[in-house]
Write a structure and sequence with these properties.
The chain is mainly alpha-helical. The protein contains eleven helices and no strands. It starts with a helix and ends in an 8-residue tail after the last helix.
Length: 264
């Protein structure tokens, strides 16, 4: 029991540390990122606008220099070459600055487009009709996940948890959310969901795998002690399960890993 408490405590601590309540904060994060990107994009555009008149001026100077070569011919050839070369170099420098600004603007536009897509995906998820029957509701979330529409699936799982927080299917929703993030190597989002399943739905058939996945995540996040506790809990509580074999493999991997810096 003491080891179980330690393991659960480690998982709960990680869940608190990494908790983001993705469903509640996604819109706020997207809005803030969108505003920041657009502000940066506006600043770059203003810089570009400030440079364009200078470029026009330099182009005019080059044109004037070329048109008056007959006059410049009365000077020494060296003087003419130096004057024209300086104008060309100035123009090349300004052109390079414009190209840099243009590149930055393109990058900002791409990032803004990505933010818009996320916002659009969330809006699309919000527009999906929610069944009133909880089994149908959960089945809809599963179908969206299988179809690869993870944005909608996650929104539905999160809504399910809010509507029926103590239902056994809510535990399955936590696990499904965790798995969707784990599959994308997003452990900071996955860990809180695994932790909620273990903490609130201890009898769920998914708990052994949730422990294993948590161990994997802790290992990836360079927290070998928490990973070891999670793996050992599976071996102790479910010794004959397939998950116990997975946990043993995880423990073996921890032993092969170099010790944490600062420890002997």
């Amino acid at each position: 029991m003491k080891r179980a408490a330690l393991s659960l405590g480690a998982l709960a601590l990680a869940a608190c540390f990494y908790s983001s309540e993705a469903g509640k904060t996604l819109e706020t994060r997207v809005d803030k990122l969108d505003k920041d990107l657009r502000a940066e994009q506006k600043a770059q555009a203003e810089k570009l606008d400030q440079q364009l008149p200078r470029i026009d001026q330099k182009v005019a100077e080059v044109t004037k220099a070329l048109d008056s070569l007959d006059q410049a011919s009365r000077r020494s050839g060296a003087d003419t070459s130096v004057q024209l070369q300086k104008v060309i170099e100035d123009l090349a420098q300004l052109r390079g600055q414009v190209e840099a600004y243009t590149h930055n603007l393109d990058a900002l536009q791409d990032r803004a487009a990505a933010v818009d897509k996320k916002a659009g995906d969330k809006k699309s998820a919000d527009d999906v009709p929610r069944p009133t029957d909880k089994k149908e509701f959960f089945a809809l979330a599963q179908s969206k996940a299988k179809a690869g529409d993870l944005t909608t699936a996650r929104a539905l799982y999160q809504d399910f948890i809010r509507k029926w927080p103590k239902d056994d299917l809510a535990g399955d929703a936590h696990f499904a959310l965790a798995e969707s993030f784990y599959g994308q190597d997003n452990c900071p989002e996955a860990l809180p969901e695994y932790g909620q399943l273990i903490k609130s739905f201890g009898k769920s058939k998914s708990v052994p795998l949730a422990y294993v996945r948590s161990g994997d995540c802790f290992a990836r996040l360079k927290n070998p002690e928490a990973a070891r506790l999670a793996y050992e809990q599976v071996v102790k509580d479910y010794p004959k399960s397939a998950e116990a074999k997975m946990a043993q493999k995880g423990l073996a991997g921890l032993k092969k890993s170099p010790p944490t810096k600062g420890k002997k």
